[in-house]
């Protein structure tokens, strides 16, 4: 991601939590640790040890390492039909502070992992679903270019396009959505719902914050602030799904991409779940979704922005989930 300034709202939070930031570089998130950028996805990661043509891992750039122990789980993903997806990522998982590892260049991203909601069921079907997010969100949701899906979410067969609308913008980090007076709230609506466009009953929020090393406590504060603003803006809301950005295959950093924001940190994962668990059923952790491979999924070197093929894959994954959770 391209360079950006940190939002003033979060200066005190970052100081209080001991997070530091340095300027980012190319693309939406950059390789540094500045505040602001594209969204990341929630829920526990699934770095794998499965078979496949994996590339050797490389260390992340950024604001310095933190300590933590790696974890492992199966490298295979489950496809839309329920059978194991092909080309599971190989290599070790990433430590909490380092984000190192390896990933297959052919891991399928044909279906997302299911969302969780702290023990309550979806309140749908909903009349109007509002998607709030970043440039990368717009790539899969509405086909925002460059790299936008040729068959985006809102045009995917089975999605009721009359019930989905969105506001997405580059660098619309979580702290901007937390601020009720930030210009992100004035972003023009894409594909307004046929009914209740200004009073959506479900909000799908894609959150992202930097640096990658942000603590779980700081993440929870950010998420709760954004959720409070969403509730104030839309008293009609009955459900808020919180998602992170799309992940590298198996949430393991690709050897050919040093942008660590292509994977989700354990602290972010834990924060999303904790916020949902404490929400009394209003907030649900949305699905985890993955780019299909390391070699053809990112439009720029060492970046998070997707290619059209990757955006199509993500649109299909998310459409599959939300068709089943209308």
Give a short summary of the structure.
The protein is an alpha/beta fold and 326 residues long.
Uncertain runs: 1-26, 30-110, 116-120
Main-sheet strand order equals 2-1-3-4-5
Total count of strands: 5
Q: In percent, how helical is the residue content?
A: 10-25%
The residue-averaged pLDDT reads 75
Q: Name the beta content range.
A: 5-15%
SS content category: alpha/beta
Give the distance, in angstroms, between the N- and C-terminal Cα atoms: 32 Å
| Molecular shape | globular
Quaternary structure classification: single chain
Radius of gyration: 18 Å
Number of helical regions: 6
What pattern of helices and strands is seen along the backbone?
HEHEHEHEHEH
Describe the largest sheet: 5 strands, parallel
Q: Tags for this entry?
A:
single chain; 20% helix; alpha/beta; 326 residues
Walkthrough of the structure:
The chain is of the alpha/beta class and 326 residues long. It contains six helices and five strands; from the N terminus they run H-E-H-E-H-E-H-E-H-E-H. It has a five-stranded parallel β-sheet with strand order 2-1-3-4-5. It is globular, with a radius of gyration of 18 Å.
Write the layout of secondary structure elements.
Elements: H1 11-17, E1 129-134, H2 135-141, E2 164-169, H3 174-178, E3 202-206, H4 216-233, E4 239-243, H5 266-277, E5 283-285, H6 308-324
Parallel strand pairs: 1-2, 1-3, 3-4, 4-5
């Amino acid at each position: 991601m391209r360079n950006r300034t940190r939002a003033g709202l979060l200066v005190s939070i970052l100081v209080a939590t001991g997070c530091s930031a340095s300027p980012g570089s190319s693309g939406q998130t950059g390789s540094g640790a500045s505040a602001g950028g594209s969204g990341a996805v929630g829920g526990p990661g699934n770095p794998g040890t499965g078979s496949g043509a994996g590339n050797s891992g490389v260390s992340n750039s950024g604001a310095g390492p933190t300590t933590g122990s790696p974890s492992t789980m199966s490298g295979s993903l489950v496809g839309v039909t329920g059978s194991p997806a092909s080309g599971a990522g190989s290599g070790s998982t990433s430590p909490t502070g380092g984000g190192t590892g390896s990933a297959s260049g052919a891991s399928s991203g044909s279906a997302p992992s299911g969302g969780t909601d702290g023990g309550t069921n979806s309140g749908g079907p909903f009349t109007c679903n509002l998607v709030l997010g970043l440039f990368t969100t717009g790539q899969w949701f509405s086909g925002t270019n460059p790299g936008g899906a040729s068959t985006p979410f809102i045009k995917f067969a089975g999605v009721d396009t009359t019930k989905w609308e969105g506001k997405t913008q580059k660098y619309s980090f979580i702290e901007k959505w937390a601020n009720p007076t930030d210009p992100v709230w004035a972003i023009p609506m894409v594909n307004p719902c046929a009914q209740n466009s200004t009073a959506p009953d479900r909000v799908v929020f894609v959150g992202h914050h930097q640096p990658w090393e942000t603590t779980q406590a700081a993440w929870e504060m950010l998420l709760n602030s954004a959720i409070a603003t969403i509730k104030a803006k839309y008293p009609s809301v009955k459900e808020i799904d919180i998602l992170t950005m799309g992940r590298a295959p198996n949430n393991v950093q690709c050897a050919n991409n040093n942008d660590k924001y292509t994977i989700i940190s354990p602290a972010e994962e834990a924060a999303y779940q904790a916020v949902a668990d404490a929400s009394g059923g209003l907030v649900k952790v949305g699905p985890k979704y993955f780019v299909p491979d390391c070699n053809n999924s990112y439009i720029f070197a060492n970046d998070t922005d997707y290619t059209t093929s990757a955006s199509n894959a993500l649109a299909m994954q998310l459409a599959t989930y939300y068709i089943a959770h209308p």
